[in-house]
Design a protein that fits this description.
It is a single chain. By secondary structure, the chain is an alpha+beta fold. It has three domains: 133 residues, Immunoglobulin-like; 36 residues; 101 residues, no CATH class. The protein is built from seven helices and eleven strands. Strands 1-2-5-4-3 form a five-stranded antiparallel beta sheet, with no helix packed on it. The protein has a two-stranded antiparallel ribbon with strand order 6-9. It has a two-stranded antiparallel ribbon with strand order 7-8. A hairpin with a 3-residue loop joins strand 3 and strand 4.
């Protein structure tokens, strides 16, 4: 009689303890293969009272879907960390494995399964479920760059034509309408660009500019004609006078003075050009 009483009391106590076990998933929907999920199991006893040999085996596949990676505990909460290693072809509801744990006192605890939904990111065809195609967010259309290529070609052509017109105008057509010192600066720049810093040539260019500005041939002894015709050159009188002295000494004197260098001549031309623009 005592035996039957012990058996009934053991079964009854085990059922009561099984009713006190709850399980909760941190994620229960939208799971894909490779996802990590955690199941929290609240036990009616402390985890330290559970026989370690009755705990689920680590790094083992439990059921067709989940692989148990880690077990941790906190008081009476048992944490099971799973990795989803298999999924059905279509999304549906699955269950975690159920376990039976044993306490150190010999009582049994039934861990119920928890439901979760999982599916594949592959799309099974209607004809053959084993044939899988990648499921994509949207269908990508082939890019058409013909319009952009045409626009790029037109833009390059317009840029080249514009540069050619500017070059022809700046070097070929426009000089005829330039003022004297604008022509002088351009001529000296040409000499400098091509590496021919010819002092004699630059000197002749400056003489032509002064003559064109005064409307007559200007010589050293008649500089007053230049001041009368071009009063805007008055503040450059020392530099211009020195230029004419060096030029006259170079061309007409036996004891010639040191001739002006190319850099000083182009500097004088630019100074005259700046006054010419303001006149």
């Amino acid at each position: 009689m005592r035996r039957w009483i012990f058996i009934f009391s053991f079964i009854f106590s085990s059922q009561l303890m099984a009713q006190d076990v709850t399980i909760k998933m941190d994620r229960s929907w939208g799971l894909l293969i490779g996802d990590i999920v955690n199941a929290s199991i609240v036990l009616p006893v402390s985890v330290s009272d559970i026989d370690a040999d009755s705990l689920p085996q680590l790094n083992k596949r439990h059921g067709p879907w989940l692989n148990l990676l880690q077990i941790s505990s906190n008081s009476n909460v048992l944490e099971l960390q799973y990795q989803l290693v298999n999924v059905p072809a279509e999304t549906r509801t699955l269950q975690t494995p159920s376990y039976t744990l044993r306490t150190n006192a010999g009582q049994l605890l039934n861990i119920p399964p928890a439901e979760f939904s999982a599916g594949s990111f592959l799309n099974a065809t209607d004809k053959n479920a084993t044939e899988m195609t990648l499921r994509r967010d949207q269908r990508l259309l082939p890019a058409d760059f013909s319009t952009l290529e045409n626009q790029r070609t037109y833009a390059i052509a317009v840029a080249l034509i514009t540069a050619l017109i500017w070059l022809v105008w700046h070097i070929g057509l426009r000089p005829g309408k330039r003022l004297p010192f604008a022509k002088a600066v351009l001529s000296m720049n040409k000499l400098r660009w091509f590496g021919h810093k010819d002092v004699d040539g630059a000197t002749r260019v400056m003489h032509h500019a002064f003559n064109d500005s005064a409307g007559t041939v200007v010589i050293y002894s008649q500089l007053q004609q230049l001041w009368d015709a071009c009063p805007w050159l008055a503040d450059l009188q020392p530099e211009i006078t020195r230029f004419y002295q060096q030029s006259a000494s170079h061309y007409f004197s036996r004891d010639s003075q040191q001739n002006a260098d190319f850099d000083s001549l182009i500097k004088l031309a630019r100074s005259c050009r700046a006054r010419e623009k303001m006149a």
